[in-house]
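Anyone? Bumping this.
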Amino acid sequence: MIMKKNLRYIINTVIILICLVFTSAVMKSSAGSSCLEIQEQYLGFKMGIIADDLETCIKTGLNINNYLGLDQAAKDAASYDSEHIDAVILNETNKPIAASFDMAADDGADRLAPVFSAAPQLKTKPLSEDIMGRRILSQPFAAEKGFGHIVLVYDKAYFSRINTLFLIDYYKNTVDNIARLALRDVTDEIASLYDKGLKSKDISSENIFNTRFEDFELIDNVVLGYDTEGEYTETAFKTLRGDYKVSLNLNSDYLKKTYMWIFFSLAAAFIICIMVIIEFIPLRKIINTRINNDNATNTARTVPVLIRFISFFVYLAAFTGLPYGAIIINSRGESILGLPVSVCASLPITLEAIALLLMLSISPLIFNKTGIKKYTLLTGLCTIIPSLVCFLFSNIYTIIICSVFLGITQGLLKYLINYLISVCSENAEDISINYGEFNIGTLTGITVGGSLGSIVASAGDYSSVYLVSFVIMLIIMTAVLLCMPYAYIGKTDKKRTAENGRHSYFAFLKHLAVSPLLLFNMIFSVGVVAVALMFIVTFMPVALNLKGLSPMTVTYGFLIYGIAGNYISGYMLKKATVLRRKTAAFISMLIMAAAVLVIIPDINAITILIASLLTGIFDGFGAPSVTSALMNTKKAKTADSSFMLTGTAIIGGLGNVAAPVIYSVILYSGNMGINLCLLLLFFLFSGMYILVMRE
Amino acid sequence: MKKILLSLFIIFCLCGCVHTDDNAVMEAEQYTSGLHDNIYKPDKRSDGESFGVAIVDDAPSRSSGALLYYAVRKMKNDGWLNIDEELPFDPENVYVRDIVGYLSQKNTGGYVEFPNEACIYLNEDTRQSCEKKLDDLINEKKIDIIVCPGADSALFAQNISRGRVPVLSGFGSEPEASDTTVSENLYDEKNFSVHINCSDCKGQLTFYKNICDFKNLGMVYYDEASADIDRYAAAAKSLGITLSSLKMDESVSSAEDTDIYYAEYINSALKLADENGIDAFMINSGMVPDEKMAEKICSILYIRCIPVFSQTGDEFLQKGSPLASVVFSPRDKAEFLVNTAAGILSGKKREDIPQSYNAPLHIIINKGAANKLGISIDYSILKYADKVYY
């Protein structure tokens, strides 16, 4: 009894606690990744110095395979934190010839394994990659018969972990520490040159230090001389003329950029938290009803909330991990069956969509055999496994296999939601309400999932988004299994079946075959909408990654998309009642075309955010307008509503299949500008088609 | 339902099996298992006693002292010697006997010991007395290995040992100190190893050629072995450099009057310039012991814009040779010496242990001379150099 009374407070407290933990985790990870970035810059700088020295040795005829001083070079490379960094030097054939640790020790093979795994990727440029759960940084050096490599292996989490709440202070301390280390390195080098006998005039004339700092973004410049002053200054040697100093200045633009990034992460985390809280509030109502074993009327009232809740979390979970399969494959340059990397990168989403489409036909059969309880449990289990597998073994094969699996589970889930909508809707108004709740849940889920995924990806590694996805899916499964009013659904289903009979996937296909006009109408409305909706998921993250823009832009792209979809579109939908349905649908297609238009001249943070805003408006306003325009054609009206829901899911599924391929072609096949122009024309044409669509 | 759950479990397992990192783990294991053959962990004699090390040198020298200093440091790092304090010596100013005296009074951990009486200088006593001392040490099984920094001492030790105890000779690159002077037939003798740094000649020429791109290098010498002519010729050939060398007349080279000697040396160098068109010249070790003469030779050749290099020797650099490399580095040698000795004490055969090593050249540069000749020296080379003169 006490439990029931305090339920509201318990749920509120849990939600607030989760949000606080989440916000603090996001803050810590964004500050941590900034700390990691500067530490990696320093490690790269240090490796660059050692690589230069090795190249000089090799120029003097040294054979690195039989070089006695190489172990010391490896130890120097790991000297920043020799306890947590392993350094290995590889010869031209990628054979380890020296290491900062004892390679023959018991743990030698374990420590070397990531280096062997990374070896095929080591080329003539520095590499920075996560392999076998370890961070790999490499620096090539020109050797006698090709390139050797200095490779550092470490646990990224260790260097980005922050155990204090004073994040900015911690970051400042790290900056200070790195700047002092770099200054010490340069000062030691200058002092040693002087000790060797080099005169200061010959030291100051060397501008080698500033070229060395080119990739060390934290450091702006290094100045040498008797009268220099800077943010960090140390005396290298003393002469009769005075102290010869080394001054180092930090790059204030870089620091400003980092602080802004930390601030934006925090802001994004807050927005996500607010959206999550809004979505969680109705959960109380469902749980209350379930605990009180309430009457049928009250239970019926919780169904739209349940649909919204499920769709929110399903899409939140799916979109947290969904866009990153392509990025992981692209960044690793992996391929299968000799296919180009770009094609392989689009495979996960394409195969997922195909699996989804196929599953839509099989799900009813499974449902009939298992019943709703087991079906929901099965769906939950299927949903959890791919994310867990992708997190544990994220290579191209598992990503692709799991994407197929994810498609299967989404197919199962879509059927479940369609089933709930059709069974729990008394009349056309109920269908509209339930579908509206489903749309809102989906939009918010995509928004929060997309933003969350990119925050996690930017703060940690890409594969960890699958872990987050797994955790979210586990929550959904538990919540859905607990909250589903099985008895009520069972009763209503029996009643509804007795009244209307069931419509199958195949029956719909048969209907389409004899009605080509309906088929065309659906393709150029619902199909095109499905393609357009995938723009934000499949095109934007990859395009930004290709352009080297920060994942934070993706986060804000998703947030702007969601806010525009939820709020601006709502306002537009209210105002659009004065317009004809077809005109509203045409305007929405114009909005989508405008979203493409803005990114044609250049893809940058501003244009992509504008495009996200317009896509959000299109999603919130255009999708219902186009569906409504379609549903009000004579052909559609003659069909049953649940029948049309199945049809919309199938054609939408086809659009989902085509979208990744279309966007992959746009991104990778030659001139992106021309490809985007063609996409723009495609949306305009679809808009025109809807406007003149025969009823 | 059970079937479905089972299928899901199988798919999960299959997904796990597809990952490719297993290959890397296997490769790493294969690689590290091969490393164990080259690691010599501290060991004792089969009778449980510690190994005894004898050091036989021609005469007390700082270079041998430095070699032993760094060798002891490495043995300490590798666990062969357990000494709980830093060595109380300056590596640049220590003699072998000082270190052996220090070690003989310490408990060094039971793996290796340096008996005080096993430090023998050939110039301190009569040959017969030295022979007896070493023979007694071998007969009494007080020593298990003899280390000889010099060639003469190595020949001496080998004659006494006659294969009973391994003799290590060399640890240098200077021809007169190791392989050239040590009799050729000793190479095949059991328990006798000569170790050299194999990177000197080619490395030296590669380095010089990187700094100023010469095509024809001149050398004046009187003894092929001392000047290491064969190895320089091979190195020059591999780098596409013509080696123009001129042998001085024996009567001149052994002349008492140094004026005659230097006049002939300079004439020979100029002859190489005029007749062979050399565009660089190298002063070989021991050819110009007089620093003033070195300065004079440099200034004469500089008028003809011919850079002068020195095979070894700090002193030439101070007097105007722009570049020199010194191959001797006690630290590198010590590292190699300890690895070799540890291999032998661990029961490895001579042919299974590397007989040569590769170490960075120790570069000395005269930047003033380089500036005069218009040779610009890269920052990386200046950083790499051990010393810079003007």
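Late reply, but here is one note on the structure posted above: Residues 258-276 of chain B form the longest helix (19 residues).
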